[in-house]
Structures are given as structure tokens and as C-alpha cells.
Amino acid sequence: MKMRYMPKFTFSILLILASFLVIAQNKKTDSIPSKIEKYGIRFGTDISKLAQSFYDKNYKGIEFVGDYRVTKNYYLAGELGNENTTVEDDRLSFTAQGTYLKIGFDYNSYENWLDMRNMIYLGMRYGASTFSQTLNSYKLYNTSTYFPEAPTVQSGEKYNGLTSQWIEVVLGLKTELVKNVYLGFSVRLNRLLTNTKPDNFDNLYIPGFNRTYNGDFGIGFNYSVSYFLPLYKTKSSSKKESKKK
Amino acid sequence: MKKIYLLFICLLSISFSSCEKDDICEATTATTPKLIIEFYDILNPLVKKNITNLALKEINSTASLVFNGTSKIQIPLKTNQDLTKYSFILNSTDVAIKNEDFLLFNYSRQTVFVSRACGFKTNFTLDSTLPFIKTETSIPDGYWIQNVVIIKSNITNENEIHAKIYF
């Protein structure tokens, strides 16, 4: 099943990498004058989770995002969130609820002009989640149609104390909408490291990791609005840059 | 700046394409198993014997499962009750020689998680003291089922024989 969406995803990743190349090529002909680099802390929230909490009665979620510019291109980055989601599939319905934390870095590969502070970044995260799952109801799968299908079984069984750890590869953008206010978007390819599964059930949705497929991989994304709080400034020029390299 | 918006759109499309449903329970997945019965010759107990026009009807159902020219049959058990009673009618198409016996299977059920797409399945464990009860119809026509032997009381898959019937 995993194989079905992987080629599409790989293709999309390649497409993005290709567009990186185009940007990189353009960069060579651009002259970059000296400019002020601002360093500081940026914090915000994921608006897609916020919006979904309003229109989707089965979902309540919030995610705080933040990063701190360490060097010219490296940012210490992280997310902290809580999700409560009920998934109603054909065969079963369950509720996953829990808190997660992701810590890592972003590398900005976008060379800004003048005083622009946009980002096209590649990053990594270590993620951990502690959560519970409640099996609301399920159906028994029976290939025989001799007996009428058994009615949906109401369960309500709760599986507590579940934990998962994973790593994420992040690909994202941040663009400054108005002064110090950023709109961001990122996609994440996740891979589980550890996953404590309940007896006779599976972790079908892990808060922060997103839904799980049959394997260890998952996909996530976020849209964020964040505010940049400048702490200090440095001056950099293109000549200095080339000497460093 | 234009490129950054282009990338935005590109990333947006990925986020939606990854939301595709792939939740179809594959036919090859082992789900609720059927009871597998193999028929043997009572006079020559090591030799399999084919049944002819064997009609199986669960006593509260109207439809019949008909098997012919085979020594191995698969029959579904009820997943909402701990017993299933079938009427086994041999030579069901021939009024002159047809013979009906009842077999009631006693079991306990276990609900086992399969996958997100398939949900759960039921495994059965035949009762250790009284796995089956053989009874005669109201018009006694003699038993055609001579002997029933339980080979495997844990019914968890359809790859093994659970019971042998000698006739």
C-alpha cells in the first residue's frame, strides 16, 4: 500500500529539488550587496490546525512553532503541539489524543536580496509524542457473506501510555508578509524510530507524526504564521561570503 | 519572490496529494477464518472421500451452501454467537436417498485486530469438552455422519484442517 503513494511523493520532492537548482543557477549572476543581517527569535502557530479545529468537529489541535537564528543559515527550530482527533474509517473508528515535541534545525538555502528575509529551508527534527488511543467502534471483517454482516461493535476501550519517537526531514518556505510577520509552509517526511503499540490494536494516528501507514513512514505538513523578534544585527557582504568559502 | 510563491503552490499540491485514501482491505489478508472440514471414508479411514451434493443450511437461515465432488469444505461460523448449528444434507438433490444430520459447533470467540483497512476479525476456539453435538432430524433417517474428529480446536486460519468427518 505504501508503494502506491511513494512514487508520487518522490516525484514531488524531485520537482522541488529541481526548482532549487534553478534558484541556485540564478544566484550566480546576481550581485549581492552588503546588507544587515538580523538575528533573533521567531515564534508562531500552525494556522491549519487552528482552522481545522473550527471546521472539523472530529479534530482539536494546536501547534506552536519557533526558531532561533544561530548562524547566517542555521536555525534552531522546534514545534510543540497537542492534538485530539477522531478518525471514522469504514471498518473502525478511533480517537487519538496526545502531546508532542519536535526539536531540530533548519538550514536556509535561499540567498536573499537586500533586506529580504525569506527562507527556503531544509531541516531535520527529532519528534516524540505521548498519547492515548480510544477504540470507539469496529466491524468484524468476514469474507463469507452467508450470514448477514455482524453489526458494528461499540467498544470504548482506551489504550493509555503510548509513546512514539521519530525523525522528520523538513522542506519548507517562510516568507515575510509584513515587517517581522512570516507566513510559512512545510512538508515533512517522517520515519518512526520507536513505537509502543497496544495489545491487539495499532497506533493508527500519532499526534505530531500524523496518520501511520503499514510501514514506518508518515507524511505531515504545517502552515504557520509567526512573528520575528529581532535581538541583534550583523553586517554581511557578498565579498566576505566568497572568502569564507 | 515569484519563485517563492511558485514553490508554495508546489508544496501545497503535495500536501493534498498525500491525503489519498489507500484503505482497501486486500483480498489476500487473512480475516475471519471459516471452519475447514475434510471428509474421509469410514471403511478406509486414511482415504479421503468426496461428498455428493452436500447441502449445508444453518438452521435459522434460508440459503444453503452446496458442495459437490470435493472432500474439503469451508463453512462460516457465526461471529455474534458462541454456537452455530448446521443441517448437513447429503445427496440433497435426490429425494429418495437424501439424508439429513445436524451438527452444532460450540466455541468461544476472540476479536483480533487485523489492520486499519480490514478492521478486526474473529478467531474461534472450539469448546474442549463439547466441541460439537451431532443430532438426528425429527424424521429419523439414520446418521450418515459416522464420526467427527476435531483436529485443531483453534480456528485462526484457513490453511489447516480443523475437523474430519468420516462417512
What does this entry look like structurally?
The complex is a heterodimer of chains A (245) and B (167). Chain A has 245 residues and is an alpha+beta fold. Chain A has an eight-stranded antiparallel barrel with strand order 1-2-3-4-5-6-7-10. A two-stranded antiparallel ribbon of chain A has the order 8-9. In chain A, strand 2 (59-69) and strand 3 (74-88) form a beta hairpin. Chain A has helices spanning 2-29, 47-55, 238-244; strands at residues 35-46, 59-69, 74-88, 92-108, 119-138, 153-178, 181-195, 205-206, 210-211, 217-236. Chain A is built from three helices and ten strands; from the N terminus they run H-E-H-E-E-E-E-E-E-E-E-E-H. Residues 1-6 and 239-245 of chain A have low confidence and may be disordered. Chain A has two domains: 1-30; 33-233, Porin (Beta Barrel), CATH 2.40.160. Chain B is mainly beta and 167 residues long. Chain B has one helix and eleven strands; from the N terminus they run H-E-E-E-E-E-E-E-E-E-E-E. In chain B, the strands form two sheets. In chain B, strands 2, 3, 5, 6, 7, 8 and 10 form a seven-stranded antiparallel sheet that branches. In chain B, strands 4-1-11-9 form a four-stranded mixed sheet, with no helix packed on it. Chain B has one domain (31-166). The mean pLDDT of chain B is 87. Chain B starts with a helix and ends with a strand. At the A-B interface, helix 1, strand 6 and strand 7 of A face helix 1, strand 6 and strand 7 of B.
